[in-house]
Design goal:
The chain is an alpha+beta fold. Among the domains are: about 1-150, 2-Layer Sandwich (Beta Polymerase, domain 2); about 285-370, no CATH class; about 380-430, no CATH class. The protein has 21 helices and 11 strands. The chain has a 7-stranded mixed β-sheet. A two-stranded antiparallel sheet has the order 6-7. It has a two-stranded parallel ribbon with strand order 10-11. Strand 8 and strand 9 form a beta hairpin. It is elongated, with a radius of gyration of 28 Å. The chain binds cytidine-5'-triphosphate. Cytidine-5'-triphosphate binds near residues 38, 54, 131 and 132.
Length: about 425
């Protein structure tokens, strides 16, 4: 049996190594066995440190996690139903513990019936050979590689290979996982596995999967580096219909994804008020470019998108084209008008407009918005307006808004000028 301790010491940070040793000590103490599993083991062979640490316990993973959390002064979150827990330590290492389990699927794509079981059974239930390798953390054979399905051979061949023929029937989310992994690692889905995937897609078994599980995979695909290559591969597998029945990959999408990267790069380097951007959502909105508003609404409902994500996606669908047409116009547009057009949209929607705009005029106006207008406030405050005898309500809001617009347009330049104008507006209704 190959021992990987030296490789681990080179590839893993000191704190990860200490943590893994500690897990071995706890296993010894508790009289059970612990194994490092999944992506961390796979990436070790690719000389990458994967900080998403998954550990399988032949024993009670929650009791185990509690012990580790106690010894490392970490925080534990447990999921009793699944026999799993996550421990976060002060060094910010996140460790997932799971009890070794066997899964049986009553129906295709149904949630598995879980039975606690041996470590080998746990490996058999996994998706791909490269993900089904493990490393013992136990005293006596710490670092020993356990590779029942020749994951190492498939890493050498650069193959993504399913463990068994029912893999994509049991769990069609693996179709998206396989494509994502293939593109991320620069591997190839080996021909038999590709056929199994195609068969599962043709039979539309994905329709029986719980939608949030598919949604999470779609989001993960869009969060990868170079998401267009994943979308392109999904298209080759006719798997875009998993996302939406009418989704088509048009040839412009590649260019739009590149333009999104450029727009986001510009935003990060130049925008004075940086907000964190959900870039995956911009890609998603771009992908839905040709799908109708109702089609996008159907997607949001079916995949239970969060309220904020949904609002951003739908507001773009509703307003995007109209706003862009106005912004691209050659005639002069006042800054307050640009503000009124873009302020109600999310930054994600605005960055997509910047990416799809074919006009330098339109792009320039969006940049101007991010640079100057976004987040601008009047110098007078609410108390100043109250002091003029205006009560809170629509008239009050209108006054504040009018002052801001005049400030944006460079008509009011000082607080005094704003106050003068406020007095005039206040009188109009007195
Ligand atoms: N797994 C599986 N089938 C799924 C999801 C996960 O068999 N539908 C198994 C795989 O063995 C995988 C492990 O669970 O390696 C952990 O899953 P996850 O953390 O999602 O993936 P990683 O392989 O760790 O990949 P990543 O690098 O993207 O975190």
């Amino acid at each position: 049996m190959k021992n990987l301790q030296d490789k681990m010491s080179v590839c893993f940070s000191q704190s990860t190594m200490m943590l893994l040793k500690k897990v071995g000590d706890v296993a010894k103490h508790m009289g059970c066995k612990a194994y490092l599993i999944g992506g961390t083991v796979r990436d070790l062979f690719l000389h990458k440190e994967n900080l998403d640490i998954d550990i399988v316990i032949e024993g009670d993973a929650i009791l185990f996690g509690e012990r580790v959390a106690h010894e490392l002064h970490g925080i534990i979150v447990s999921h009793k139903r699944f026999g799993t827990c996550t421990v976060t330590t002060p060094e910010y290492v996140k460790i997932d513990f799971a009890t070794a389990r066997r899964e049986t699927y009553a129906k295709p794509a149904a949630l598995p019936e879980v039975e606690f079981s041996s470590f080998k059974d746990d490996l058999v239930r996994r998706d791909f050979t490269v993900n089904a390798m493990a490393i013992s953390l136990n005293e006596g054979d710490f670092g020993a590689l356990i590779d029942f399905f020749d994951g190492v051979g498939d890493i050498e061949k650069k193959h993504i290979k399913a463990l068994h023929d029912k893999s994509f029937v049991d769990d069609p989310t693996r179709i998206l996982r396989g494509i994502r992994l293939e593109r991320r690692l620069g591997f190839i889905i080996e021909p038999h596995t590709a056929n199994l995937m195609r068969r599962s897609i043709e039979k539309e078994i994905y329709k029986r999967v719980e939608k949030p599980r598919l949604r999470d995979e779609i989001i993960l695909a869009l969060k990868e580096k170079g998401p267009f290559r994943i979308i392109e591969r999904m298209n080759e597998f006719r798997a875009l219909k998993i996302v939406h029945p009418y989704l088509k990959l048009h040839k412009e999408v590649d260019g739009i994804f590149t333009a999104i990267d450029e727009a986001c790069g510009w935003y990060n380097d130049n925008s004075p008020r940086k907000r964190s951007i959900e870039k995956w959502l911009i890609y998603l909105m771009a992908l839905f470019g040709d799908v109708s508003y109702d089609g996008a609404l159907y997607f949001c409902n079916k995949f239970e998108l969060k309220r904020g994500e949904r609002l951003r996606m739908l507001s773009y669908k509703k307003q995007g084209t109209k706003v862009l047409k106005t912004l691209n116009a050659k005639r002069k547009i006042l800054p307050s008008k640009i503000y009124r057009l873009l302020e109600p949209l999310s930054h994600e929607a605005t960055l997509l407009l910047m990416a799809v705009s074919r006009s330098d005029i339109g792009k320039g106006r969006i940049m101007e918005f991010f640079h100057k207008y976004n987040g601008m406030r009047a110098s007078v405050r609410g108390d100043d307006i109250k002091a003029l005898g205006v009560k809170a309500g629509p008239h009050f809001a209108k006054i504040m808004e009018k002052i801001l617009y005049k400030k944006l347009d460079g008509i009011l330049n000082t607080r005094e000028e704003e106050l003068e104008y406020a007095k005039k507006l206040a009188k109009r209704r007195l």
